[in-house]
Amino acid sequence: MGSATVEYALSISVSLLPVFLFLAVLIFLDSYKLVKLRDVIITILIGCGVAYVAFFVNRFALDSTAIDIRLYARYGAPLTEEVLKAVYVIFLLKAHRAGFMVDAAIYGFAVGAGFAFLENIYYLQSLQESSLFVWIIRGFGTAVMHGGTTSIFATMAKNFADAKGSEPLSVFLPGLATAVAIHSFFNHFFLPPLISAVSVLLSLPLIMLLVFQQSERATRGWLGVGFDSDADLLKMIITGDVAKTRIGEYLQTLQTRFRGETVADLLCYLRIYLELSIQAKGILMMRQAGFDVPPDPDIKAKFEELEFLRKSIGITGQIAMSPFVRTKGRDLWQLQMLQK
């Protein structure tokens, strides 16, 4: 009885620990620390829920069709499971919860980790006579694969969304196709199980390293250019020098389209937005340098004033300010970050 308990505990460890250790490394390597531990835990639990749903979807598909189980494992299950895992990631990206590719990678891997957790627990209960070697393969191969494919999907989707400036369905399809293809290839067992698991362990860290490097470069570029341009425009507004620039000429034309008090609200709206944008980028720079920035006690009042002015200027005023007040992608995400 004692040896059986030890063997069971060992099986759980080797089947679950690798994927969660890999997730912990991803979180540790994120220099901006934007994904909170609470959000990671929630995402893992959602991944568990996805695995629960996938179990019934897969069983229904097998029971209602005459498809061979090996054929379904190679083509049907990868499509079903990757689509289901992608749903929550798509929600996060559309809700602008992930500012950078690194954030998307962590969220994606967390969904896959939760999925692998529940799946391996199920198989541990079902395959009680299996050897420790099986759980080594499932832990270092299958479980990490589940996290890796969803992470790759998330980073590709985030990259395409940033390039397009929005999140239409088309930005998600390439990453989803890639995740399904990798999952399907893994399930074909072209390679012996041990070699397949080793291949996953060797290739996935390399892919994640490239993602982190690309994300870091994009973040530094966005922070540098965005901070400087926002700071310059805010300085011009405060000092009154904006009237001498092309931006000032554009703002001057607004006086012929809006009432005087509305123009004043437009300028206040732009000023507060720039202050918040600069503050958000400054926090990110401080975090990258290793400093923990305390919350601003006045931040709530600033957002309340911004919302009041947004309603005051109306839809037409927001469109007029759209060249300067960016409300898509990272620029919208940075404001949401300040509100957390």
Please describe what this structure looks like.
- It contains eleven helices and no strands.
- The chain has 340 residues and is mainly alpha-helical.
- α1 runs parallel beside α5 (132-164), α4 (101-126) runs antiparallel to α5 and α7 packs across α9.
- 36% of the residues are buried.
- The chain folds into two domains: 2-214, no CATH class; 240-339.
Q: Key terms for this structure?
A:
2 domains, mainly alpha, 11 helices, 0% strand, 81% helix
Quick rundown:
With 340 residues, the chain is an all-alpha fold.
Question: Layout of SSEs?
Answer:
Blueprint: H1 2-29, H2 37-64, H3 69-94, H4 101-126, H5 132-164, H6 173-188, H7 193-239, H8 246-254, H9 260-288, H10 299-321, H11 329-339
Helix pairs in contact: 1-4, 1-5, 2-3, 2-4, 3-4, 3-5, 3-6, 4-5, 5-6, 5-7, 7-9, 9-10, 9-11
Distance between the termini: 50 Å
- Judged by helices, strands and strand pairing, the structural class is mainly alpha
**Apparent shape:** elongated
Write down the overall mean pLDDT: 77
Main beta sheet strand tally, sense and closure: none
List segments where confidence is low: pLDDT < 50 over at least 5 consecutive residues: none
Order of helices and strands, N to C?
A: HHHHHHHHHHH
Helices, by number, come to 11
Task: Give the fraction of residues assigned to helices.
Answer: over 70%
